[in-house]
Write a structure and sequence with these properties.
ten-stranded mixed sheet, 9 helices, alpha+beta, 12 strands
Length: 325
Amino acid sequence: HYFIQSNLSYGNSNESSMTFRERVIIINNDASESFCVSNSQELSVRAAEGVITRSNTPPSDIDCVITNTSTGVMLPNLSTWLPQQLGLNVRCNYSLDNTGCGGAISCLDVARSVILAGRAACILVVTVDCASPHLNTVPGVEMEDILPNLLFGDGAGAMIITNKREPGSWRIDEPQCQLLDMETSNYIDMKLSDSGYYLNLSKDLVPTLYRELSSRWPGILKTLIPESGTKEGGEVMGGVEGVEWVIHPGGKAILETFTLLSPPLSPHSLRHSFQVMREKGNLVSATLLFVLERVFRDSDSKDIACLVGPGPGVEIGFVSIERIR
């Protein structure tokens, strides 16, 4: 069994101590790299300590750490550094890097597989990204192409995944992913230039995502919601309103894409994703955990939650989890 304990933790960067220029334009490459690493380490420790405390997990029980980040270059990597900082005696650790906005689903996939293989029984998962250096001046790149990155922020999320079936925990189904055509490989593209990091988001991303999701949506629903299927004549059976939706809030247009599919997701189904986008912005790999945390806190939430996270590639990752009563 593989279960998410219903306590999540997260951290946000304190931007009040930074000037507008520091937040928007990182001039020196060394300063940018140093900021990325130090800030992501601080946030990851804060999120990890928070979830260990809130879930009442004895640190001695944690026998594996899985981390995910697309931030900076760390050696030793975060999955090695973090257990040392927390004083954890783990049997194994895994570092998943550069998976972007779908990173949380990748972590669930690896954690589920590790527990299924008997390698660990209690896993600390931490996702962290610092996107503020993406707000950068890059020679040859127009400011209008950089300004969309204002949606991004710095943040970390953490969760405990165990092999214990306990009331209130959530069972993880098998995560899935689908890669889009090769032509989309540079639609979400990050490079390290002489003046710092530059994140490019293609203007074709949203229309391509809509086109691809329109044809794939019935199959994705059938995987996420087993009772969903396709009737004769192509009509898709319902079920979308009977579950909670945890959609990565990569932007208003991306969330609205899900309201145009057949069957569509209602604005109410996307309420948690929209709220996280308004309050926190796009925190890359940690964002899905911020949305999921709202589902866990909602006393009226349903017993199945479906997570969908488009990421670089372009890749669409998805998984459903079910609450244990």
